[in-house]
Amino acid sequence: NLALSGNTQYTLTAMARVANQGESFWLGVTDLVSTTNLGNTPITDTSYQLQTLTFTTANYAGERNHNIFIWNNGGGDYYAYDFDLVGQTIGPVLPTAIELTSRSKD
Predict the structure, then answer these.
(1) What is the DSSP string of 9-75?
(2) CA nearest 80: which of 51, 106, 104?
(3) Which residues pair with 15 in a beta bridge?
(4) Distance in angstroms (rounded) separating the CA atoms of residues 70 and 79
(5) CA 9 to CA 89: how far, in whole Å?
(6) pLDDT mean by block of 10 residues, the chain; 106 residues
(7) Residues 28, 73: contact at Cβ < 8 Å?
(8) What's the predicted TM-score (pTM) here?
């Protein structure tokens, strides 16, 4: 699990490949609080290629736990290494609900 900041765009990279032509697996990220899949990408190359997944976390203050996952439903062997995660804040984290009160001057 990774603790990631809210309202931030992240780029996840990894070197990855499958063992045989026609096989595939998925590399992705899930927000463990909301259980939302923030993005995934299929890996189908048989030679190591740099894989890139860009995703944006939800608008929340502080940090939340996220999971980087590898999913393979079709069998076969797959390989990934040299994971890197870089984030850049998009803007200020805003409250999800704002209550405005107006007062009139008499």
Answers:
(1) EEEEEEEEEESSTT--EEEEEEETTTTEEEEEEEE--SS-EEEEEEEE--S-SSEEEEEEEEE-SS-
(2) 51
(3) 50, 81
(4) 10
(5) 6
(6) 92 95 94 95 96 94 92 88 89 52 50
(7) no
(8) 0.80
The residue whose two tokens read 């009160």 is 101
Amino acid at 44: T
Phi, psi at 10, each rounded to 5°: -115, 150
Instruction: In whole angstroms, give the CA distance from residue 42 to residue 5.
Output: 25
Tell me how far CA of residue 66 lies from CA of 34, 43, 50, 104, in angstroms: 10, 21, 22, 46
